[in-house]
Q: What sequence folds into this?
DNA sequence: CGCGGTCTCAACCTCGGGTTGAGACTTCAC
DNA sequence: GTGAAGTCTCAACCCGAGGTTGAGACCGCG
């Protein structure tokens, strides 16, 4: 009678499963990742770790991020534990050399900030006009509250990047293409994700989140690779 | 008579210049980066380091990559020295799902590999048909040698990412948008870079390379931020 | 029943990324 | 010209991240 009918794997089985893709994984490493809070497998009555598919998938994601993106574990953790991951958000608003907070732990940031056009312009170090143009071209989409645009932390992220382009003389209207593309891409992802959400599986939500994160990463790399390849051909270099 | 008419800065001046943006920088760190081969400032007759604008710019780039992307110094170095990867040329077009080369010295480079459709399909673990479809949709653009497509390492990168999408049931034709966008973006960058190359400055080439790298990074973040923002609104999150 | 798998816990290790200090030279400001 | 401030090298040291290595005890399955 094979006992293989249980619906989880032991740590050793997981090891074997991951080894081909991640030769550097080890039992002690997996355990270590648990002590660091990156995974949290259930236990049997006697204390053995139980790895369900979702756990293994998460482990795979962790190892991939570590190997391919060189992310430190604390960042991986943040990024996986709810989108609490602050998209990085380097602190200190304001262009001025403001000593800023020693800050140290850059947790919590982003979503609940609220700024008007002047504030966000100042925070990103660009002219207010840039903000207005970006908004009118739809690159930024502030919520409109009482007829006045209200920008959030994500908009600030965008604006900071735009400010890099501005240095090279790029104008807001040139950046519309980025907005259009983001919309198309989001719609594309939605088509993939929505069916997953409709499943009556209790884990559906969790799986969908993981899937979305993975799609986002893959698409980023795809865009990168295509862009680089194209540039290499079109620019002498 | 102010001696300020020299066209370079001392290490201390550089420190002051960078401090606002990178509070953690220090003199010893800058020197350390030199011993690690990441920068290579000229020296005065008496041995003092001379930092020209391009050196400072490079330094800034290094610090940004370290802080925002968490890249280890050796990876930053490789990435900035562009092409100069070590060893490489694994050539292991391993079959099977994913042993491939985790490669250790990541991504970026593998220019001189040459594969036909079957080989690249095997290396990425997808069906040959996927390769054919991608090629016919222009997502992959192999050189055609004697009527036969010849794919390189960049194509393999792309194909690996595509294989992630395939898992979710995406078909090659859905990915055409990525190709279109990469083309538009490359053309956009070209418009920014070409004027820089035409300058009769001896450093023009170097500056243009730096600029291109910076644009690439900024645009990546911009795309990321826009996509995430859009997803957050369109998918219940 | 025994052999291999798994558990915890503390000690240990390596490496990346710097810091510190000593001792000597250079440059700036007056 | 002289001293204070800045810079140089070089070796030694430091710290944290990310694990590894046993020792000793407990499961579990054939």
A:
């Amino acid at each position: 009678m094979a006992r293989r009918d249980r619906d989880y794997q032991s740590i050793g089985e997981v090891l074997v499963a991951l080894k081909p893709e991640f030769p550097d994984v080890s039992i002690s490493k997996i355990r270590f990742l648990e002590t660091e809070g990156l995974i949290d497998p259930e236990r049997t009555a006697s204390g053995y770790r139980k790895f369900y598919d979702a756990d293994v998938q998460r482990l795979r994601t962790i190892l991939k991020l570590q190997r391919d993106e060189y992310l430190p574990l604390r960042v991986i953790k943040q990024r996986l534990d709810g989108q609490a991951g602050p998209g990085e958000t380097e602190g200190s608003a304001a262009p001025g050399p403001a000593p800023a907070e020693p800050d140290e732990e850059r947790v919590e940031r982003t979503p609940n900030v609220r700024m008007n056009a002047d504030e966000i312009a100042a925070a990103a170090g660009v002219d207010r006009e840039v903000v207005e143009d970006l908004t009118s071209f739809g690159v930024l989409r502030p919520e409109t509250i009482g007829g006045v645009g209200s920008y959030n932390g994500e908009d600030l992220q965008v604006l900071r990047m735009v400010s890099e382009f501005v240095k090279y003389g790029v104008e807001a209207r040139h950046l519309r293409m980025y907005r259009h593309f983001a919309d198309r891409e989001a719609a594309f992802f939605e088509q993939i994700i929505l069916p997953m959400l409709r499943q009556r599986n209790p884990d559906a939500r969790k799986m969908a989140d993981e899937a979305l994160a993975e799609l986002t990463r893959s698409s980023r790399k795809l865009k990168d690779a295509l862009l680089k390849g194209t540039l290499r051909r079109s620019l002498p270099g």
Chain A has a mean pLDDT of 84.
